[in-house]
C-alpha cells in the first residue's frame, strides 16, 4: 500500500513545466502548483502584456499574483525525495534528464545516447515524433556502445578481426574485411552458443547415463559378491559343523572301544583271581591250559 501511495504522489508532485519533482512549490489561485522558478519564468515572459496565465489551465490573472511557498506541499516533496534516495542503491539505471532526484530510467536512446525515465521518455517521443530514434531497454554503461575515436555507435562487427566497429571504422580500416551488422553477429554467435550448450548438455546427459549404468552394474556385482560370500560361508560353516560332529563321534567310538577293552581285561583278571583261589587242582590245570590257547 505504501508503494502505491508513493507512485501516486510522484505524478502529483511533478511540475507540468519542467516535468521534474517540484522545487520550492507554489500554488496559484486556480489551484495548480508549480516550481517557483518555473512559474516565475513563465510570468516574466508575459510581463510585457500585464496579463499572466496558468501554464496548465490557461486561466488569466491581472495584476501579477504574489507567490508564496506552499509549505505542506514542499514537505511532501521532500519526503518523496528521501524515499527515492533510500532506494538509490537498488542498481537501477538513472534518468540522465532528471535535474533533481534521478528517477529510474526505462529506455535508452542510442541516437541521443542518454537514458530516460517514463516522464522524460514521453517528452523525448513528442519532441522527435516521426523520426526513427533507436530506443532499447536501459543500458547501465551506454557510452560503452560508442567508439570514442569516431564518436559513432558500435553497430557493426568485423568477422576478420572479431571486433565491434562503427560505420567510420568500416570505411577507414575494415573496408576489405568480412563485416556484418552487430545484430546479425549476435544472432550467429547466439546460435553457436546455443548449439554448444545443447552439445554440452547432451554430453553431460550421456556421461550421467553412463555413470548411472556403471553404478547399477557395480550394485549388481556387489550384490552377487555378497550372495557368493554368504553361500561360501554357509558351506564352510556346514563343513565345520560336520567335521565337528564326526570328530565328536570318533572320540565317543574310541572311548567306547577303550571301555570295552578295559571291561574285558577286568573280567579276565577276576576269573584268574577266582581260579587261583580254587582248591580243585584238576580244574585249575584244565582252565590254565585253556587260557594258554
UniProtKB/TrEMBL annotation:
Residues 15-58 form the RING-type domain. The keyword Coiled coil applies. Residues 186-221, 252-279 form a coiled coil. GO terms for molecular function: zinc ion binding. Keywords: Coiled coil, Metal-binding, Zinc, Zinc-finger. The keyword Coiled coil applies. This is RING-type domain-containing protein. It comes from Cyprinus carpio carpio.
Amino acid at each position: 500500500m505504501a508503494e502505491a501511495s508513493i507512485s501516486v504522489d510522484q505524478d502529483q508532485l511533478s511540475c507540468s513545466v519542467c516535468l521534474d519533482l517540484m522545487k520550492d512549490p507554489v500554488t496559484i489561485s486556480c489551484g495548480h502548483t508549480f516550481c517557483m522558478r518555473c512559474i516565475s519564468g513563465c510570468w516574466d515572459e508575459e510581463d510585457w502584456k500585464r496579463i499572466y496565465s496558468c501554464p496548465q489551465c490557461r486561466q488569466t490573472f491581472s495584476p501579477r499574483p504574489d507567490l508564496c511557498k506552499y509549505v505542506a506541499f514542499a514537505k511532501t516533496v521532500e519526503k518523496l525525495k528521501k524515499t527515492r534516495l533510500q532506494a538509490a542503491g537498488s542498481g537501477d539505471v538513472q534518468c540522465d534528464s532528471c535535474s533533481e532526484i534521478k528517477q529510474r530510467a526505462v529506455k535508452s536512446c542510442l541516437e541521443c545516447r542518454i537514458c530516460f525515465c517514463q516522464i522524460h521518455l514521453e517528452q523525448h517521443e513528442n519532441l522527435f515524433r516521426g523520426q526513427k530514434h533507436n530506443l532499447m531497454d536501459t543500458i547501465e554503461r551506454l557510452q560503452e556502445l560508442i567508439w570514442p575515436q569516431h564518436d559513432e555507435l558500435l553497430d557493426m562487427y568485423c568477422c576478420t578481426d572479431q571486433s565491434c566497429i562503427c560505420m567510420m571504422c568500416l570505411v577507414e580500416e575494415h573496408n576489405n574485411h568480412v563485416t556484418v551488422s552487430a545484430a546479425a553477429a549476435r544472432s550467429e554467435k547466439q546460435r553457436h552458443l546455443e548449439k554448444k550448450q545443447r552439445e554440452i548438455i547432451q554430453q553431460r546427459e550421456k556421461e550421467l547415463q553412463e555413470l548411472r549404468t556403471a553404478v547399477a552394474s557395480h550394485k549388481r556385482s556387489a550384490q552377487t559378491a555378497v550372495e557368493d560370500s554368504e553361500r561360501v560361508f554357509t558351506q564352510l560353516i556346514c563343513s565345520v559343523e560336520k567335521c565337528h560332529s564326526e570328530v565328536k563321534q570318533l572320540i565317543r567310538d574310541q572311548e567306547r572301544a577303550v571301555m570295552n577293552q578295559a571291561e574285558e581285561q577286568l573280567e579276565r583278571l577276576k576269573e584268574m583271581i577266582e581260579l587261583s583261589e580254587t582248591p580243585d587242582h584238576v580244574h585249575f590245570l584244565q582252565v590254565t591250559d585253556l587260557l594258554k590257547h
